[in-house]
Specification:
The structure holds two protein chains of two kinds. Chain A has two domains: 52 residues; 31 residues. Chain A has three helices and no strands. Chain B is mostly helical. Chain B contains 16 helices and no strands. The longest helix of chain B is centred in the first third of the chain and has 36 residues. The chains are: A mainly alpha, B mainly alpha. At the A-B interface, helix 3 of A face helix 8 and helix 10 of B. The structure holds protoporphyrin IX containing FE and copper (II) ion. Copper (II) ion binds next to helix 8 of chain B.
Chain lengths: 98, 546
């Protein structure tokens, strides 16, 4: 796809960025593990999901290159992401009110 | 009408042109031509459909009389699971997109092939591998899976039959589906002919496009769910099984987050086919093109929001129950939009009741019954009574078989002359619609009544008061399956002995009717430039003179 669009800038982050992101992911993972031991009551799940969301957006944007892609990919991805959020929200209507 | 537009069928068509250096069987097995891949899917899918039908008839034989008739309870459990898995994963989900989508989507948008032809072939082989693994699990020690096609936890973790292998098969079949969806979306975005704007695309393309999105977004959910069940079985991790600290309702959520949208994977392409056939045989442009196209997208989206209507009696929260009931009623709206538009298209049209059109009529009738009884199941109070009874069995056969199944036959009869360049016996085809309809009603309508009276589903035995209705249902299964084998028979006969079909036997105007039957490799000598609206029948004159 990239080759078909001459206007498209081939921007690739360097190894430095990749390593930084990797370290960040490791850091977030250890936060997840630590926080699992802390009792946050009803917020436990939301905190866990928030951290997971940050981690996956790092992976999607940097490792999977979406940040440097054309707009249409971002739109599609946002749509799929929205669907996922809606599905989560609806599931919680069961889980929270049980 | 037939024969007027006849163009001599030329020997140079895709049956005689290989995409690789081989001829004979390898030129098929290694082909990357979308039409040949579509036909390979057709052979495999019809084969499994017939196996599923035979298993269905066996179940009906068991149910002919109370008590044990031909099989014992455990075998019956295996039979309904096999029947369900085959019909859902090997027939109705891939059916229309993989066969007719593959064959006609590129042609209808003026493309030479799909965007990723090799990926297309890979999808086909994933389908075959999945199917083979599923069959293999039947004969391996442990015995055939007996959970029902829904694989509900905790039984699916505790059953000692072969569970992991058929689950893996379903996982692989999911990938086949995802790759097909990916291919179609890219094809629609990148390969439309000049002038073919989104709103000039035939409605079958719109429907297949919307379906492709559902395939991509929903299928991974069932993939993950299946993997989790396998992990739970193999390593005893407590994800779903309450005895291990898991949540069985979570399984049902995840399963239906896919499997409800999957019913739209089944029905949307069928609705697309209906939107092709009705204008052609009414000689009238479709009423409300944009409304139909947009309702496909709306169904695809709202279809994500209703899954828990399968779980009203599973013990989820009351709040979730009324919310999902409400949303379920909303999804009926875009379907209603379509039915009204189809009927409005026929109004004052000049109707030509050829076999494909008759199939569509059967569809509208049967699917409406299926859809309306769905509202009985979507309402909380009534669902408590009929949940897990024959009422549900009747409902889903009316929507899946009466809906998508009849349209499978409609599409087959509509496009058969284009795909094979031969014509079938129209009289046989007309009779088949009638006997199909009679068999169908006898087979499934009594199940509504029995379900209402309390006959539970998935039982190999029943109380004596159901005996008469069960017998009627079994007789229906003979008429219906007889019709199906009759159809296969006369179509096979037509394939080899039928008269040559003209390039446009029905007077259709979408792009596939502009090219010869069967089409050449890569479909078009020169890519057409599109100037007409998709269902502009004023083109017919020019086409005849061409
Ligand atoms: C001649 C054709 C057919 C016959 C005779 C037939 C008959 C049956 C019977 C007797 C059952 C079991 C009812 C029970 O005990 O709960 C059943 C279940 C089912 N059928 Fe069919 N059927 C046919 C075609 C189809 C088609 C075309 C589809 C799908 C498109 C389909 C999908 C299913 C599914 C999903 C189940 C549920 C399996 C389960 O409970 O896990 N059937 N059918
Ligand atoms: Cu559903």
């Amino acid at each position: 796809m990239q080759h078909e669009n001459p206007k498209h800038k081939h921007h690739h982050p360097g190894y430095g960025t990749y390593i930084l992101v990797w370290l960040a992911l490791l850091a977030f993972t250890s936060i997840t593990v630590t926080i699992a031991g802390v009792n946050l009551g009803r917020y436990t799940l939301f905190v866990a999901l928030l951290i997971a969301a940050i981690k996956s957006s790092l992976v999607v944007n940097i490792f999977m290159h979406i940040k440097f892609e054309e707009k249409i990919f971002k739109v599609f991805l946002a749509l799929s992401g929205m669907t996922l959020v809606v599905i989560f929200a609806l599931t919680f209507f069961d889980f929270i009110y049980r | 009408m037939m024969g007027q537009t006849a163009v001599a069928v030329k020997a140079d068509n895709f049956y005689h042109q290989s995409t690789n250096k081989y001829s004979g069987i390898l030129s098929w097995l290694l082909t990357i031509d979308h039409k040949r891949i579509g036909l390979m899917y057709m052979v495999s899918i019809i084969f499994f459909f017939l196996v599923g039908v035979i298993v269905g008839v066996l179940m009906r034989l068991e149910l002919m009389a109370p008590g044990k008739t031909i099989v014992d309870a455990q075998t019956y459990n295996a039979l309904f699971t096999l029947h369900g898995v085959i019909m859902i994963f090997l027939f109705i989900i891939p059916g229309l997109p993989a066969i007719f989508g593959n064959f006609f989507l590129p042609i209808q948008i003026g493309a030479r092939d799909v965007a990723f032809p090799r990926l297309n072939l890979l999808s086909y082989y994933l389908y075959v591998i999945g199917a083979v693994l599923a069959l293999l699990s039947l004969v391996l020690p442990g015995g055939p899976i007996d959970t029902g096609w829904t694989f509900y936890i905790p039984y699916s973790v505790r059953s000692t039959t072969n569970i992991s292998l058929p689950l893996l098969a379903a996982f692989i079949l999911g990938f086949s589906s995802i790759l097909t969806g990916l291919n179609f979306i890219t094809t629609v975005h990148r390969l439309r002919a000049p002038g073919m704007g989104f709103f000039k695309m035939p409605l079958f393309v719109w429907a297949t496009y919307a379906t492709a999105w559902v395939q991509i977004i929903a299928t991974p959910v069932v993939g993950i769910t299946i993997l989790l069940v396998i992990i739970e079985r193999l390593f005893g991790v407590g994800i779903f099984d309450p005895a291990l600290g898991g949540d069985p309702i979570l399984f049902q959520h995840m399963f239906w987050i896919y499997s409800h949208p999957a019913v739209y994977i089944m029905i949307l392409p069928a609705m697309g086919v209906v939107s092709e056939i009705i204008p052609t045989f009414s000689r009238r442009t479709i009423f409300g093109y944009t409304a139909i196209a947009m309702s496909s997208l709306a169904i695809a989206f709202v279809g994500y929001l209703v899954w828990a209507h399968h779980m009203f009696t599973s013990g989820m929260s009351d709040t979730a129950r009324w919310i999902f009931s409400l949303l379920t009623f909303l999804v009926a709206l875009p379907s209603g939009v379509k039915v009204f538009n189809w009927v409005a298209t026929m109004y004052k049209g000049s109707i030509d009741p050829q076999p494909p059109f008759l199939w569509v009529m059967a569809f509208i009738f049967l699917f409406s019954i299926g859809g309306l009884t769905g509202l009985v199941l979507g309402a909380l109070a009534t669902d408590v009574h009929v949940h897990d009874t024959y009422f549900v069995v009747a409902h889903f056969h009316f929507v899946m078989f009466g809906g998508t199944g009849t349209i499978f036959f409609a599409a087959l009869h509509y496009w058969f002359p284009k795909m094979f360049g031969r014509m079938y016996n129209v009289k046989f085809a007309r009779i088949s619609v009638a006997t199909f309809f009679i068999g169908f009603m006898l087979l499934y309508f009594p199940k509504f009544i029995m379900g209402y009276m309390g006959m539970p589903r998935r039982y190999y035995d029943y109380l004596p008061q159901f005996a008469n209705l069960q017998m009627i249902s079994t007789i229906g299964s003979w008429i219906l399956s007889g019709t199906i084998f009759f159809i296969v028979g006369y179509l096979l006969h037509a394939l080899f002995k039928g008269p040559k079909a003209p390039s446009n036997p029905w007077g259709g105007v979408t792009l596939e009717w502009h090219i010869q039957s069967p089409p050449i490799m890569e479909n078009f000598k020169t890519i057409p430039t599109i100037t007409h609206e998709p269902y502009d029948f004023s083109q017919l004159k020019e086409m005849k003179n061409a």
